[in-house]
Each structure stands twice: as structure tokens, then as C-alpha cells.
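Q: Hi! First time doing this. I have a protein sequence and I read that you can turn it into a structure. Is that right? Here it is:
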Amino acid sequence: MNTRPAYLTLIASLCTLSLLADPPKQVPNKLPNGERPWAEPDADDVAKIIAALPDKAPATPSKPRKLLVFYRTDGFPHSSIPCWNKLIVELGKRTGAYTATLSQSYDDLTAEKLKDYDALFFNNTCRMSTPEPVKAAIQDFVKSGKGWAGNHGSGDNWHDWPEGKEMLGCEFVTHPYGRIQIKVDDAKSPLTAVFNGKAFPYSDEIYAFKEPYSRNKLHMLLSIDYLNSPDVAKAEQRLRDRAAAPEAKDGEKRDLAAARADKDYALAWIRPWGQGRLFYCALGHRHSVTFEPEMAKFYLAGIQYALGDMKADDAPSTR
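A: Yes, that's right. Below is the predicted 3D structure, encoded as C-alpha cells:
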């Protein structure tokens, strides 16, 4: 008998369809300062985002909170960035959990400017060319007791910055996986309450990570249910075949690291960092992820953890 809740079955169907149906969005060219003049999401997308919003935050803010949403991308520009900006801003407005400010200027990531905020949210900030003073400001900000949260492309950052990778808890390799089964690693966490402890099928661009990723350092929330994700094993074999081919390119050989020997494919986690807190979720390549009520609630809980209002066990999930 199928005991999966009806809403999870519906999510699976919608996700599979939307992965194929997500229309390409126009990505603006960079301006001379490296920023992009992104357009606002269209009216249909905005309506879907608004419909996905919860009416109440899972945690009561201990004081008025301010969140800086940083969406600059120096690498691959995800076309879902405007939808994510809209979702994060509207989540704060609807629930009163925080007030969000948008920026893609490195000038706003200085120690002086960051004093005004309780947490950062990095929206698909792929392959940032982070200036050294900004690196120091981010570290000081989080370690002093503030928070950092990020989605999808923000996990593909700081390949040249060891302390940044260590804070994030991983280094991106590639995204070889699509259709998966997601398992809830910590069903007791208030951050995962929306999923009711049940595994569920999902489709997105799924990142794979290598060291410094380790469950000995991170508190896992979601990961791939490997035994119930047959497409992952097939994709692993394709990675091995490509890397072993006589004509294999250096990039294809490097991508072999995405076929993890331990089959431990992390998707979302939290961790303390100094006196502060970090939340990361690798889901969010598709703009239609922002239309999903469950993901809106999950990200809101993660942001509230980063802000310091959502109390949760963040001890490492040692395997």
C-alpha cells in the first residue's frame, strides 16, 4: 500500500514536469562593474511565488531582523535569481520574520555595511570573484554571531578560498544528477518539519560535493536516498566511463570525484561557525522551485536558523 502523503506525490509529479517545462529566462549581460540588470519576474511567476508563501513563520523573531540578500554571480548566471529574490523578500514581508534588502554590489559586503544586518542570504552566487577585504568581512560577520544562508549556486563558490569552503562545508564538483529520492536525515529538526519525516521524489539540477564536506562537521538535514534513486547509479557509471575513455578531457577526469565512493550525497545542512550559524540547501536551479510551498517553508526555517531565531540541534551528523 502506498503510504506516501498525497502532497508529496503531487510534488513529485509537478517537479518532474517543471524540470522539463521550466522555460529559459533571459539572462542580462554584465554591466562594466560586473553586476547584471536583472528584470523583475513576470506576473505569472510572481503570482505562483505569492501563492506558495506561508502565512506564519515557524519561529518568533526575538527582535526585528534584517537580511541582506546578495545575488551577484561572477560565474554561471542562474536565470532563477529574480524569482529567488522575490521569494526571499516576500517571505519576510508575509511572515514578519525579517526585512530583506537586495544587493549585488561587493561594496555592501564591508564590515561597516554588514553591521546593519543579522544574516546574509547568498542567492545563486556562482563562482564569486570575492575581493580579499570582502572575504575577511564575511568571516568576521558570521563568526561574531551573525548568520549565513544560501541556495543552490552559492554552493559553487570559493574554490580558491580554503576558509570560505570550510565555512560552507563543501566544494562543488559538478551536477550529474537530476531525478532523485530525497531522504530526511533529521526528522526531529524543526527545519525539516514540513516534510513530516517522509522521503520524497524530486527533480532538479543536483550538485555533488567533495572535501571539505564531511558529516563529521555538518548537521545533515536532507540528502539523496541512494538506494531509491536508480538514476544516480546510472549517472555515476557515465562519469566513470567518460573519465576512463582514452580521449577523456581533464575536466571529465576531475568530474569523477562527483561519483562518491561512500554514496553520501548531501543536499541541505546547518552548522555553527564561530559564534554564528550557517544554512545551505543545494536545491534551487529551477525557478519553479520558488513556486513550491514546502520549499518556501523549508528555506524560511533555514533563514530563521541563520538569523538566530530558529533553535535547532546543529551538532555534526557523524556517520
